[in-house]
Sequence to fold (92 residues):
Amino acid sequence: MRTKDKVRRSQIAATEKKMREYIKQLFSESGEASFGRTGSFLGLVLGSGWISFLVWTTHHLPDLQGLTVFISTLYGLSKTGETVQRVMGKKE
Fold:
């Protein structure tokens, strides 16, 4: 029983370490995780839920242009900032 507890604790510790690393990368400019990507994903999930609710209640598909611009803007702004940094020579 104690061996299972030790294994479980080590798995939890490894998972916590990975989550801390992801969050660190999420807010860093040079990390792999990107706030633009994560924000776009959250916007997509929330937008999909909202559109599904609207279609379910009204039985009509609303205009999706504004939602598309909102979701793509999050990612686009992130990539624009990264591109400017590369052009200015501040990021490799």
Q: What stands out?
A: Residues 2-26 form the longest helix (25 residues).
